[in-house]
Amino acid sequence: MKAKRKGAVLRVDLQGAEPSVLTTLFDDFAVLLASEDAEDPALARLYPAGYTDDEPASQEYRDMVMSDLRDERGARLQLCRAEVAVGGGRIELDDEAADRWIKVLNDLRLTLGTRLGVTEDSELDPREETTTLYHWLSSVQDLLVTHLMA
């Protein structure tokens, strides 16, 4: 993946299998977002408790906001997926679209990190495909942030 700032637009060129990898990750994440598995640690990480010391209040909070939060995440995800599908390997992002991409990439990283058990002290097996994806997503997110700050 390469990125270059052109005025108010960040041009991102996906290389090789990157569009396919992103599409697969987006599709898998959409399935997770549609899941109702309250025990899934990845969903718990994406939607932390509103109140850590009051379960009834936390459940009430989830009941009030969960649908909207899922809808927002799902909408961002679908826009990013559509940009990959129509871009032919090139995506042009204004500031709003770049912010959306950073949020979606962060959601993907949180999900993979939870599945991998990532902590500050963890050492990940570099031979694991999921570890490779996690590091790749981290580098993509870093690339976008770096170019947006320039």
Which structural class fits the helix and strand makeup?
mainly alpha
Order of helices and strands: EEHHHEHH
Instruction: Give me the number of helical elements.
Output: 5
Task: Please give the radius of gyration in angstroms.
Answer: 17 Å
The total beta strand count reads 3
Q: Could you describe the largest sheet, including whether it forms a barrel? A: 3 strands, antiparallel
Task: Extract low-pLDDT stretches.
Answer: none
Structure description:
- This protein has 150 residues and is mainly alpha-helical.
- The chain has one domain (2-149).
- It has five helices and three strands, in the order ββαααβαα.
- The chain has a three-stranded antiparallel β-sheet.
- The longest helix has 33 residues, at 55-87.
- It is globular and about 50 Å long.
- The two termini are 18 Å apart.
Topology diagram in text:
Elements: E1 2-6, E2 9-13, H1 18-34, H2 41-46, H3 55-87, E3 90-93, H4 95-116, H5 129-149
Antiparallel strand pairs: 1-2, 2-3
